Structure formats: C-alpha cells, structure tokens
Amino acid sequence: MTLLAGTTATLLVRREVPPYGWFLGESDEADSPEVLLPYGEAVSGRPHVGDGTDVFLFHDDKGRITATLRKPLLQLGQMGRLVMADFHPRFGCFLELGIGRQLLLPIKELPDDKERWPREGDELHVVMKQDKEGRMLARLAKIEDYERVVFRAPASWHHEQRDCWVTDTFRDGVFVLADGGVLGYGALGYIPTASMTHPLRLGEKVTARVTQVRDDGRVTLSMRPSKEAGRLEDSDRILDFLKSRPGGAMPYSDTSPADVIQKRFGLSKSAFKRALGKLMKDRLIVQDGNWTKLVEAGGDRPSSDNESTTST
Fold it and tell me: S1 motif domain: which residues (predicted)?
C-alpha cells in the first residue's frame, strides 16, 4: 500500500501506543506499512483497535506521513478556493487547509509584478499537487481546471452586480471567477483595466457589474457604475472638490490630459467630461481656459481677478 499525502484512506486501527496515539495500517499483517494517528488529531472521538477509520494523510513537521481525523478543504488533484493566512518572501503564500496546517503556494506561482501579489485574507483558486518528495503543494488553477466546474452565465446577469475573485492578472485587465450563487460554482469573467476603480491583485475579492454576457457564456464586468449613475456620482465628487478649493476654482478642465485626470480624480477623460457637462448644464460651474470654477450664488461667472492659481 502507498500512503499518499493529500488523500483520504480507510485504514485499520492496529494498536494504541500511549502517549503517541494509534498506529493504523491497510491490514493487521505485521509487515504492512503503518501510519500514526496522534491523540491530538482524533478530533471526532477515540477510535478502537480493530475498527476501520477514514483518515486524511499529510506530512508532519518532521516530514513523517501522519493521519488526522480532521476534514481538509482540499485533497490531492482537487481545485478549491483557499484563504491566504500568511506570506513568506522566500517561500510564498501559506493557505488555510482546514486541518490546523497550511498548504504552500510557491512564490514562483505568483505574478512578476509584486504589486499584484495577494495579501492576507485574499482567496486563491488552487489545485493540490505533490512535490518530488510527495509532500502536499499548491499550484494556481488553470483555465482547464475552471472549465470542468464553471457554467455559462445566463443572459439575466446583464447589469447585475456579482462578487468576483481575481484568478489571473494581465497588463490590460484581470480574469475573475464570478460567483454563481445557487446556480453553481461560478462563471468565468474579465475586468478590463479601464473598468477598474483601482488596480486589482491576485485573489482579491471585488463586486463588479456585468456589462456583457458573451456568446460563450463568459462575462465582461466593470467596477464602475453605469454611465448615468456614474455621471451623477462623478459630478458630486467634482462639485465637492471645487467647494473645498480656494475661490471655488481648480486648474482642471475638459482640455486637461487624460493621465492628469486619472491621477487626480481616478476618472477616465470621458467620464470627467460627462461630469463637467452635467455641472455646466445645471449652471453650477463655468470653464475659463484651463480652469473650472463655481458659479457664484447670483449666477454670475466668477471674476478672473480673484482666481487662485494654487495647484493640487
């Protein structure tokens, strides 16, 4: 019999040896291999000699194959979403496995850009495998792993908000798994960089709006509100900013460079122009060259003599 770490086996309780625990084997033959079930791992009750019992196998801190009655969140060859408990700059991410021990996701599995590395509490989709010594190890799930469990998103998802977990990162966007709720495991999706409100990292959980349900059942999502809702929200933000400025003026207008607008307001150039258009239509602001200014209470354009030239 081969005792494989990361698997569940039904073994015979051969004998109890205080103060260690119970020794288990495939049979009661003296030459058959044994594995220790420590007292501390018998969380669901004391087994009895001669009984068969289901145990999960793992390597202890000394590299010995060991048994536990704890139920793991993931087994060898399975894919699952595990919470990152800790990070080591040399080794990688340590993921909660549900048995009081953690599963290592090696650092070589992470993106080259460290800004995209997961943080404690993030949830990573991984598959359990073994290293050359037969010890449990994790790898990031690949597209073929997802395709076995995901479903085609229904058309009714269009415009809905879905919880998503980032599964892979690229320069122009991130791939995500959109939560399926009662429908199942989830659907594959993509969030373009232009549709993010902040850069996303591997394993991060976000809520995004479905902007397209594709013919292949995958979805495109955006973290930004719809144009109309976004226009109102962006307008309020710009108006509040102007009210906080000396003289109610700011050195930004619809002629400002897109990268400046993105850095200062976190908005695309088109979203910024839509928000300014609404405020001008409502007669709350005017533009004067490269400056945008609040309209005074009487409705007159603010005097250029009192402009503040202080930039942010």
Answer: 166-224
